Amino acid sequence: MTVRSLARQAALTLGLPVAMIALWWVVSANSTSIFWPPLSEIVEAFPETWTWDRIVNSVVPSVVRLLTGYTIAVVVGVAAGTAIGLSRNVRAICEPSMEFFRAIPPPVLVPIIALFTGYTGATAKIVTIALGCLWPVLLNTVEGVRGLDEVQLDTARCYRFRTRSRLIHVVLRGASPQISTGARQALSIGVILMVVSELFGANSGLGADIVQFQRSFAIPQMWTGIIMLGLIGVVLSAIFRIVENRALAWYYGLRRADRGA
Question: In angstroms, rounded to a whole number, what is the distance separating the alpha carbons of residues 126 and 197?
Fold first, then answer.
């Protein structure tokens, strides 16, 4: 990739965020509202608020809970979605229940989950994140498995692939683009639920800090917490994209080849 193409890619990637930050800076420059401080004050408060100790004691536990709940959701969602997608009878039995539970917003379940697991511990937060992230992964896995080419499955049977090999190299590989789509959606939901789950009785975490800043009228610090949350989302999304590009390199290669043909 040439320097010119790299510069063009960087301009396309950073152009809109830079423009939005500049607009925010200009519009808020003369603000006297306590709830809408100038961006310059928020920037000044950022390093003072998010010291290394606060990052270790607040941000890291939140991210660990997020990744734990997200991992549980991906593992359970892929396993259950594969089983449901491969069997028409199982799908017919499970589909009404899946539609019912999918329609229930996970934040509504937070108080109920906390009643059984406690408000202050990490278990309630992990369970909330896992339940919220489960459905995109599960439903996309079911649809991905259902959409597999029957010829490929029959060919694998004719060549006497073992069940494990057929599952890994045919079923999961063929459904992996749609599984990846569900996992990407689940990651965004997980970041939201990471904060929502910390609004109920949490004594540590990014969400708890944002609420504490709001209650003590430390508005610039509250805005720095919101910005920190956005930065976490950007970093996790970038990591996910790198992993996805490596894992699905074969798929993107096929798409480029089809477009070239």
Answer: 8
Least confident of 19-28, 69-78, 100-109, 214-223: 100-109
How is 12-30 classified by DSSP, letter by letter?
HHHHHHHHHHHHHHHHTTT
- Rounded CA-CA distance 32/89 in Å is 63
Report the amino acid identity of residue 219. I
**Rounded Cα gap, residues 112 and 28, in angstroms:** 41
pLDDT above 90: residue 224 = yes
Segment 123-150, tens digit of pLDDT: 888 988 998 899 999 999 999 988 887 7
CATH fold group of domain 57-260: MetI-like fold (1.10.3720)
What is the C-alpha separation between 78 and 167, in angstroms, rounded?
12
